[in-house]
Amino acid sequence: MSDKKVFFTGGAGFIAAHTIPLLLERDYSVVIYDNMTRGDRDRVNEFVATGKVELVEKDVRYGGGVREAIRGCTHAIHFATVSINKSIADPHESIDINMTGNHNVFAAAADEGVQRLVFASSASVYGDPQKLPMHEDDQLNPLTPYCISKRAGEDLLGFYQRQKGLSWNALRFFNVYGPGQKIEAYYTSVINHFIQRLRAGQAPVIDGKGEQSMDFIHVTDLAKSVVAALESEQANLPINIGTGIDTSIATLAKILIDAVGVDVEPQFNPRDVLVSRRAADITRAREVLGWEPTISVQQGMTELVKASA
Ligand SMILES: NC(=O)c1ccc[n+]([C@@H]2O[C@H](COP(=O)([O-])OP(=O)(O)OC[C@H]3O[C@@H](n4cnc5c(N)ncnc54)[C@H](O)[C@@H]3O)[C@@H](O)[C@H]2O)c1
Predict the structure, then answer these.
(1) Could you identify the atom of ligand 1 that is nearest to the CA of residue 188?
(2) Does the CA dihedral 47-49-53-56 come out positive or negative?
(3) Number of domains in the chain
(4) Number of neighbouring beta carbons within 10 Å of residue 226
(5) Ligand 1 closest atom vs CA 37
(6) Using CA positions, which residue lies closest to atom 3 of ligand 1?
(7) Residue 101 belongs to domain with CATH number
(8) pLDDT 10s digits, 161-214
(9) Residue 187: domain span
(10) What family is it from (predicted)?
(11) For residues 180 and 213, is the Cβ–Cβ distance under 8 A?
């Protein structure tokens, strides 16, 4: 058995469910550290049954628990977090979990000699972008406690790198979608909302002209970037993970109408909307991680519709 062992916070969540199989293929064993507030217990049990995954059911705010569980791990992935929606509704809890959790994990990883740590940051650290595509060196303007904690997390990694030689990569995920995602996901809930309406024979309703856009990245592609970031030669960088393509809400509606196979036209609800657009510059991901997205939005959405039928 290999001695590569990953300490994985939030390892019972959506993106982790797609990442853990890749880690097992590459001969890592995995310690899932998750308090199971949003975790998928059935999926975790399947992983545990392989004999290469264990679950430590604890909170990232409990520093002693983190330290104990990380001991002996060669790598770390830090995903445990509370979402944007919850961070707006309850800033206190969000700051507590995200900031304290970040610090507990980064400090323990640095002290316990973890070789590489991968942190889930977010495209939301940019705030409303000044230009597209969004580049890692662009100005950051995080707007919510969640986004502020992601940005602070990146800065804190820099501190432990300078202080204790911690090696890290912070992946700025764009709009992740795919099988197993919870329907209330902040940005991508629109996908589920449209699919549900289309299945009921109703037209998707779009505010304004539907010009607002997202950079939808399929979770299968995204999971590969996490493993690449764990193993890349170059490190200590924030790295955008998206497709580089901005898909407007109007285009998304058309893609989903085709995928569901109904004969309706989107309805436009004329009102002023703030048009926000997103697309990642993924040059750095290509160069540093040797990573490339392979699933087009059309293909990914069509498969998602089929899988959820
Ligand atoms: N899904 C996206 O579109 C997206 C976009 C940008 C960034 N991210 C980041 O990627 C990471 C993974 O996202 P996801 O979609 O898989 O989220 P998820 O909610 O499915 O998973 C998060 C996991 O963390 C666990 N958790 C929450 N609070 C905890 C605590 N206090 N202690 C221990 N565990 C705790 C939950 O039980 C859950 O299993 C997160 O850091 C998220 O911020 C996600």
Answers:
(1) 3
(2) positive
(3) 2
(4) 25
(5) 37
(6) 176
(7) 3.40.50.720
(8) 999 999 999 999 999 999 998 876 766 788 999 999 999 999 999 988 999 999
(9) 177-215+244-307
(10) Belongs to the NAD(P)-dependent epimerase/dehydratase family.
(11) no
